[in-house]
Design a protein that fits this description.
This is MarR family winged helix-turn-helix transcriptional regulator. It comes from Micromonospora sonneratiae. By secondary structure, the chain is mainly alpha-helical. The protein has six helices and three strands; from the N terminus they run H-H-E-H-H-E-E-H-H. A three-stranded antiparallel sheet has the order 1-3-2.
């Protein structure tokens, strides 16, 4: 077995900083979203994904894949969102076992109301702290890591 390639001081600093930043940023954005719009991050993700489709609907399996959630976990969350009137669930016309999640008028209104405040929080807590060059670098490195993690050669 090969010896591990331990992180050097700069690599460890970058890795630990990224992990701490990610946790703090996620926590702050979640708090802001809940306080300002009464939505959880998961609610926001569901509503924004649905609102970005032409007909405001997605198969539950596709939505779960986008969110990196299991179908079961998302199904339970969708049930809670249905109870609040944000989405409905319909049978899939092409697959009797499948279901389609549909954005309601109340759900569309909720995402349209929440989005400006959420974008302002993203700006306040991340984007506006960076230079144009840092934003470009963040975009490039994010895309590289995402491409690596979603490539077929990458283990699941």
């Amino acid at each position: 077995m090969d010896e591990p390639r331990w992180l050097d001081r700069d690599e460890a600093r970058a890795w630990r900083g990224y992990r701490r930043m990610r946790r703090l940023l996620d926590l702050q954005l979640s708090r802001d979203l809940t306080r300002d719009a009464g939505l959880s991050e998961a609610d926001y993700d569901v509503l924004s994904d649905l609102s970005e489709t032409a007909d405001h609907r997605l198969r539950l399996t596709e939505l779960a894949a986008r969110m990196l959630w299991s179908n079961s976990r998302l199904s339970h969350h969708i049930t809670r969102m249905q109870q609040r009137g944000l989405v409905t669930r319909e049978e899939c016309a092409t697959d009797a076992r499948g279901s389609v999640v549909v954005l309601t008028e109340a759900g569309l209104q909720a995402i349209e109301t929440a989005a400006p405040g959420h974008v302002a929080a993203v700006r306040r807590h991340l984007i506006d702290l960076l230079t144009t060059e840092e934003i470009a670098a963040l975009g490039a490195l994010s895309e590289r890591v995402i491409d690596h993690l979603t490539s077929e050669s990458s283990p699941a």
